[in-house]
């Protein structure tokens, strides 16, 4: 589903690579924690998966596609297969909960009828059916994050990327969010979550990929947070972390086929069990999450100072019901927040990818990607393809990956937010 082949990412003006020849594969339906100290490369990984940036060397395949083959104009369609959740929620402050979730469907041209059905269903799933008309500032942090998750999954993405989704939440609220992410994963969505939170990682016992200074030092199925750099006894269990061999350049780290562990998190108190994803999985029976002392990650490297890479803007969501995998992206309205950190490489990447794409037959490679059970039941809409370069002025929806550059505007009243540079 996602494969990194010897990926190195070096940002301009830096001496050390943010990612240093990493190879790893994530399979369909996995729940993967990406852990590591600040600056270890977690957000960079997520950005590369989203094709927000390109690697300096190596190749990335997502949903069966080599990302280099996706032309700039096809990136929005590619991203509709993914949902993204951020630490800081990135809700539209002047829109209601309903409208925040609906926004991502409106900009990809969903019908009013579709939206009227999909949004309430999704809000019910995240336990916010009663608060659909509230504004974000009238919600708690946990509720705001659930709105952001609803927005990320309303289009039923195949992949959900979560960058520190519990970073701003207290432990109890975080447990509710984790329970929700577990349910989403149980519905077939592949989840990759970057986090520093030892308690959550230890509790979940899912696959853990640990980065230190841009290298994978551990790839452990059902791991905990304890760092491979200094193996530590996990509080309460007496279990010691068992670091596997670093994958580094020695080949692709592939997960062993193993059943996902049972849910570690009870559903959020205010989310009835009946309001979860319509999938067959055992009921969540775990007790409230015991919050353990964090095990600090020792980073015995001269990692550069952390740069909080707010995986720039594109907040996806995904395709609801009869649609093919499609994520929609939504985010804050502030233009400043919408501007990806642009080091120029993305533009180069796009130019390169465009050139490549022009040389190839005009096929929508995303359509050729393997589908999940979810997407199989859906039909892909006819997507308009434009044949011109990316305009300097990108609209909000274009920046968010919701609509291809140049595609006909929609009814959402979005504003132009200027060039990305
Ligand atoms: N646009 C950029 N330009 C230059 N350096 C960058 C850029 N983005 C990230 N970096 C550097 O790349 C390295 C990895 O950063 P990244 O944000 O991926 O780490 P992280 O593990 O996600 O950190 P955190 O947990 O603090 O979010 C860091 O050294 C960071 O300073």
Automatic annotation (TrEMBL):
Keyword Zinc: no
UniProt biased composition (Low complexity): 227-238
UniProtKB keywords: ATP-binding, Cell cycle, Cell division, Cell membrane, Membrane, Nucleotide-binding
Region spans: Disordered: 227-256, 380-421
Ranges where the ABC transporter domain occurs: 2-238
Domain of life of the native organism: Bacteria
GO molecular-function terms, A-Z: ATP binding
Protein topology in the membrane: Peripheral membrane protein
GO biological process: cell division
Places the protein is found: Cell membrane
Polar residues bias (residue ranges): 412-421
Assembly and interaction partners: Homodimer. Forms a membrane-associated complex with FtsX.
Function: Part of the ABC transporter FtsEX involved in cellular division.
Family: Belongs to the ABC transporter superfamily.
Name of the protein in its database record: Cell division ATP-binding protein FtsE
Organism ancestry: Bacteria, Bacillati, Actinomycetota, Actinomycetes, Micrococcales
Gene: ftsE
């Amino acid at each position: 589903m996602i494969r990194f082949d010897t990926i190195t990412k070096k940002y301009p003006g830096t001496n050390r690579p943010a990612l240093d020849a990493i190879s790893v594969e994530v399979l369909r339906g996995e729940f993967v924690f990406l852990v590591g100290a600040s600056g270890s490369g977690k957000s960079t990984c997520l950005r590369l998966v989203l094709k927000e940036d390109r690697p300096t060397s190596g190749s990335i395949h997502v949903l069966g596609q080599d990302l280099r083959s996706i032309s700039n104009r096809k990136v929005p369609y590619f991203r509709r297969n993914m949902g993204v959740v951020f630490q800081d929620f990135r809700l539209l402050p002047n829109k209601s909960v309903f409208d925040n979730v609906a926004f991502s469907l409106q900009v990809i041209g969903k019908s009013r009828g579709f939206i009227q059905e999909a949004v309430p269903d999704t809000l019910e799933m995240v336990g916010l059916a009663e608060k659909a008309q509230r504004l974000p500032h009238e919600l708690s942090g946990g509720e705001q994050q659930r709105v952001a998750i609803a927005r990320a999954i309303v289009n039923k993405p195949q992949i959900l990327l979560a960058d520190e989704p519990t970073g701003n939440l207290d432990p109890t609220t975080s447990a509710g969010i984790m329970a929700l992410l577990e349910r989403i994963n149980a519905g077939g969505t592949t989840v990759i979550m970057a986090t520093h939170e030892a308690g959550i990682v230890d509790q979940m016992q899912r696959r853990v990929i640990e980065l230190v200074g841009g290298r994978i030092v551990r790839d452990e199925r059902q791991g905990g947070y304890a760092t491979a750099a200094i193996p530590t006894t996990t509080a309460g269990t007496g279990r010691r972390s068992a670091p596997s061999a670093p994958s580094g350049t020695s080949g692709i780290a592939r997960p062993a086929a193993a059943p996902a562990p049972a849910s570690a998190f009870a559903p959020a108190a205010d989310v009835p069990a009946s309001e979860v994803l319509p999938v067959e999985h055992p009921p969540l029976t775990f007790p409230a999450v015991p919050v353990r002392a964090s095990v600090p990650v020792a980073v015995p490297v001269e990692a550069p100072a952390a740069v909080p890479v707010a995986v720039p803007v594109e907040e996806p969501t995904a395709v609801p019901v009869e649609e093919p995998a499609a994520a929609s992206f939504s985010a804050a309205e502030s233009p400043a927040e919408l501007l990806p950190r642009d080091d120029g490489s993305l533009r180069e990447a796009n130019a390169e990818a465009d050139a490549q794409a022009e040389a190839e037959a005009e096929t929508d490679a995303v359509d050729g990607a393997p589908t999940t059970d979810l997407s199989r039941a859906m039909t892909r809409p006819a997507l308009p393809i434009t044949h011109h370069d990316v305009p300097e002025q990108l609209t909000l929806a274009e920046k968010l990956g919701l609509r291809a550059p140049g595609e006909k505007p929609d009814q959402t009243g979005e504003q132009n937010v200027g060039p990305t540079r």
